[in-house]
Structures are given as C-alpha cells and as structure tokens.
Amino acid sequence: YIEFARKQAAAAYGVLMMSHMASGDELLKQARIMESSGAEYVILMDSAGTYVPREVEDRVALLVAGLNIPVGFHAHNNLGLAIANSLAAITAGATMIDGTARGFGAGAGNAALELLVAVLGRCGYETGIDLYRALDLADHAATELMREVPSTSSIGIVSSLAGVFSGFKDPVLRAAAEMGVDPREIIFELGRRKVIAGQEDFIVEVAIELSKKSV
After folding, report:
1. Number of Cβ within a 10 Å radius of residue 6
2. What single-letter DSSP state applies at residue 161?
C-alpha cells in the first residue's frame, strides 16, 4: 500500500468527490471516463463521512471489478468509522488508503495514519511504515501543528446523516447564531437540497428561511 502511495505525486488520478450522492453504477461510469482520459488510479472519497463499512465494500468492489486501474479510498471520521471503512475498502480490493497524522482534516477528521498503521499491522498487512515513528509524528502534529485535534461532534454526526460536506461546520454555526436557529436543522436542509462544497452561499439562505419559519 505505501509503495503505491509514494507514486501518487507523479501520477494522474481521478477523484470521486461526494460519492454518496451517486449510485454505484454512476460512480463506475464516471471512473471509466477518468480511466479513459488517462487517470492512473481512482479515489473514492467519503467527503461527508456518511458511509458505513458495507457501503464502502460494495462500492469499492464494484469499481475494482469494473476498472483496469487501482482504486483507493479516502475516509472521514464523522461517524467514528474512518478506520473500519478503510479496512472495508482494503477487503474489497482498494490498494491505496488515505491517512493523516492524528486524523488531521475537516470536520471530525480523516483516518488517523498512526491508527491505520497499527490496525493494518494487527490484521497482517505490511505497510512499510515504522509504528513508533508514526506515533511520534501524530504526537508532534497534535501538540505543535493543530489548534484542535479532530473529534466527533454533534454537527459532524448530523453532517454525516445529512450527507453534507464536513467543512460546512463553522459557517453553519455562524449562520445559526446570527439567525437564532438550530444548526442541525440547517445541516439537514442543506442535505435535502444536495448542497456541495463551493455552494456555501446556501448556508445563509437556509438559515434566513428557517428563521422566518420559526417566527
């Protein structure tokens, strides 16, 4: 796994963002377009941290069976399943798994690299990564590089259930405070509207509408 990861900087790759919003067949269709356009591998992104292991395994298996290039997986930890989902992806044939020191990333964070190394070793996979050095890196990141270590939160959980990008947390909280509405209701409404990253303007719009309804 790690040997392939080292090659990614020089490789052309395709990314299936917000993949929970499309069917498996549609994901495979888009991945095949990426492959035919020269992508050397495809990454399935759980951008909202909404997948459970069974869903990851099913989708990764479909991509692996339908493509001639390697498949990877990028987890978010909104439901506390980043490691479990990463293992499910590997079981289904993924050969590259994203991880960050202490799970550094948006919302509840990504799959923690040090946990991936430990768990994969426990399961008999050889990563080529020194566990102690991964743990030291995680400790350094947590104390020297991060203002706040990622963790699950009420907003993160709701974001995953609504299928909304984790990075919306702060603007949602601001809009909720300004309009005097429940931030969870904003998140669920954004999910119903299928809002994606780059459409942050909808956050204020939704907050205003919810505020009017509560009057």
Report:
1. 9
2. H
Integer Cα distance of 113 and 163 in angstroms: 24
Q: Which of 2, 174, 168 is nearest to 189 (CA)?
A: 168
Sheet holding 41-45, edge to edge: 13-16, 41-45, 71-74, 96-97
Helices marked H in 21-149: 24-36, 53-66, 82-91, 113-122, 131-140
Helices and strands, number each (H, E), in the chain = 10, 4
Q: How far apart are CA 68 and CA 65, in angstroms?
A: 8
Q: Measured between alpha carbons, how far is 207 from 157 in angstroms, rounded to an integer?
A: 19
44 pairs with which residues across the strands?
16, 73
pLDDT digits over 78-92, tens only? 999 999 999 999 999
pLDDT in tens, 34-64: 999 999 999 999 988 999 999 999 999 999 9
**Residue 16 structure tokens:** 């299936």
